[in-house]
Amino acid sequence: MSDAFEIINIGMNHRTAPVELRECLAAQEDHEERALRAIRDCDVIREGAYLSTCNRVEAILVTDRAREAERWMLSLMAELGGTPRDTIAPSIYIHKGLDAVEHVFRVAASLDSMVIGEPQILGQVKEAYARATRRRTSGVILNRLMHKAFHVAKRVRTETGICESAVSISYAAVELGRKIFHELEGKKVLLIGAGEMAEVAARHLITAGVDGMWVANRTFERAVEVAGYFQAEAVSLDEIPVVLEKADIVLSSTAATQYVITHDMTRNVLRKRRNRPLFFIDIAVPRDVEPRVNDLENVYVYDIDDLKDVVEYNREQRKAEAAAADRIIREEVLKFDRWLKTLAVVPTIRSLREKAEAIVRSEWKKSDAALAALSPEQREAVRVLTRSIVEKVLNDPILFLKGKAGRETLEGYLDVTRKLFNLDREE
């Protein structure tokens, strides 16, 4: 990495800070914009982005005065959270150089999340970067870093199975539904009960493309309220047998002490369904669906223990896939490091090109009278030929310098190049 700057990452997450502390930093709606305005106006920071979610608050900075930038950023976070600096400091982590690069890649690829493989974090990272570009706090280094992070996240998602397996009860229910129906678009759902877990599962089903939902609850008022969340239809518990004739998926989560769905009720409904599959997701304790229902033809019943087994199996699968994801990240960190090292040769290469351009302009101006008799097409042909010769002459020196990037001998080669081409001559 160039000595002129350093990438640092300063933040806290669900592992280092309690939710009460993370909430302080996200208490005001415009805290991200305030952070970016401060970063833009800070003379010790060259580039910066600010990420704030329910599970993490982080700043990604490019600076040539790392210690000052760290102290300044810690003070800003304390100010944004209305919390003493000494209170925040023990929960803060700081990554520098390639460790910071690796951390950003892991965050974007959802390997540093509370639930490994969850998809929301990538969108949040993209939003944070978009804010930085709008506020013009992002530059060459950060632009490259963030786009590389998005590339890494895509590789992890497509080359590993880390994002494919459900690791929550509610999402496991949706995954099982997909296995039974192959696709959930066009399927209809009956939601029995209106608890938080049932609501979350219902949201996952809506996202998966189900078409239509009924909500039944012990109190009809609550059924109407929850139905409003999903543009669904509220029904009474007495109407369940009628709705079962039309539903494809039944998600049940009540506090009933007796079975809400019985064997006889389901068997009578099946005669009218003409062999269409019926999928029950019973996440109630005690269970809402009588176990014997699972013995009926074309009926599938999963209770919360079944879903827990799916979640645990998938969690183990994700751990195995995480090893492959780690390999991808290490590979991409090395690639980014190689790019960073090429930055040391950029000023010399730019000077080479600028001098060549200046020579071309000067010689073209001197030859203008001699070329006056040429047609526009002929003049353009000469111009293209001239530029082509210049590019070919410069190509080998430029490739040579790039090949020396990161080596101890680079400074010597840069010095020789600048002297050979007289790049430092004072005008």
Q: Could you give me the name of the CATH homologous superfamily of the largest domain? A: Glutamyl-tRNA reductase, N-terminal domain
Largest sheet: 6 strands, parallel
Name of the CATH architecture of the largest domain: 2-Layer Sandwich
The portion of residues forming beta strands comes to 5-15%
Q: What is the topology, as strand order, of the major beta sheet?
A: 7-6-5-8-9-10
Output the radius of gyration.
31 Å
Structural class: alpha/beta
List key phrases describing it.
Rossmann fold; six-stranded parallel beta sheet; 427 residues; Beta Polymerase, domain 2; alpha/beta; 12% strand; four-stranded antiparallel beta sheet; 3 domains
Verbal overview:
With 427 residues, the protein is an alpha/beta fold. The protein has three domains: 6-164, Beta Polymerase, domain 2; 169-309, 3-Layer(aba) Sandwich (Rossmann fold); 342-420, no CATH class. The protein is 55% helix and 12% strand. The protein has helices spanning 19-25, 31-41, 66-81, 85-88, 97-108, 120-134, 140-159, 169-181, 196-207, 220-230, 240-244, 263-273, 304-342, 346-366, 376-403, 410-420, and strands at residues 6-13, 47-52, 56-63, 93-96, 189-192, 213-216, 233-235, 249-252, 278-282, 299-303. The chain has a six-stranded parallel beta sheet with strand order 7-6-5-8-9-10. A four-stranded antiparallel beta sheet has the order 2-3-1-4, with helices on both faces. Helix 9 links the parallel strand 5 and strand 6. The longest helix has 39 residues, at 304-342.
